[in-house]
Specification:
Residues 150-284 form the Poly(A) polymerase central domain. Belongs to the poly(A) polymerase family. Its EC number is 2.7.7.19. The protein has 352 residues and is an alpha/beta fold. The protein has three domains: 1-27 and 150-286, Poly(a)-polymerase, middle domain (Orthogonal Bundle), CATH 1.10.1410; 37-145, Beta Polymerase, domain 2, CATH 3.30.460; 291-351, no CATH class. The protein contains twelve helices and eight strands. It has helices spanning 2-15, 22-34, 57-70, 127-145, 150-162, 175-188, 194-206, 252-269, 279-282, 288-291, 305-317, 319-330, and strands at 39-40, 44-46, 49-51, 75-81, 88-93, 96-104, 300-301, 350-351. The strands form two sheets. Strands 1, 2, 3, 4, 5 and 6 form a six-stranded mixed sheet that branches. A two-stranded antiparallel sheet has the order 7-8. It is globular.
Amino acid sequence: MKEERSLSLLQLMVNEGLVPSLEEEENRKTVIEKLKQVHGSESDIDALCVGPYFATMVDDFFIVLYNMLKSRPEVSEIYCVKDVKVPLMRFVFDGILIDLPFVQLKVLVVPENLDILNPVFLRDIDETGWKSLSRVLANTQICRLVPDLKSMLRCVKFWAKRRGVYGNLNGFLGGIHLAILAAFVCQCDPFVGLSALISHFFKKFAFWPWPRPVELQDETLHPTLNPTETRLYMPIRLPFSSYEYCHSNITKSTFYKIRTEFLRGHNLTKDLLKFDFDWHNVLEPFPYTKKYAWFLKIFLSASKQDELGDWVGWIKSRFCCLLFKLEEVQGLCDPNPAEYIDVNIADPHVIF
């Protein structure tokens, strides 16, 4: 029966487009060939732009490279997110969403066959560059510790997006957070099927004693609790360090929402053998209009599509400040991470 549940979940993932087709896989391979330092996932790609010591983020990355990418026919929906702890460019390349942060290395020339994990290149990197680099280091360690993670992570990310708890800029869980949480469950239960892993995922974190940190099992590292990081609502340790934790924008409101969704997932998956069990119930979209009576709508408009992208990036970089202010006034709020285009509005280049 549990095997049937796993097969039904895999079929649902296929139906929802979570399992790439052969054409999509070839498309991703093309992108990866063009972006040599990519470490990707099933729905988007986390890339890293590496520059020599004389290349700056302000001028060379956010102006020169931005204009180069903007002029490419394969690139669309490009905008910059600057005033955050991990500044980046976000754009669509041949239909695939790319997150591109920047790191400056203390070298005169960046070699084509650069091993970014070589300690020689990691010296004297500033704090912003180190946070940008942490995604690559974390992804590499996760793949080493838990190599067979792809199917579970696809499902977990799909659940998080459907239930409105995905997106670090919006105060929720980012891709690296979910990857570590999923890998942690895989380490705890290495010999069970996909459906059981998803069930254990919800059970594990529905009752996790936060702010106790989540740490992957790694014999090369010694567990070391950094007391300053226990102030985070959901501390998740980066898998390449004994004392560094994932950057998080989680607030009081989003922490409550995430825990509520973990508990809901647990209640729906704790008995996979029930005759009426259906994965569609677990993964149904969050019913915002049924759940809430009051909404705050952020309406963005620009005269040009390119200007709208920059405007969206500027708003997203300050979104958590708005959450904190709303919590001071309202107590709790539930930001919807999705963006919408109102087809009934005649004005062009509008998003909310």
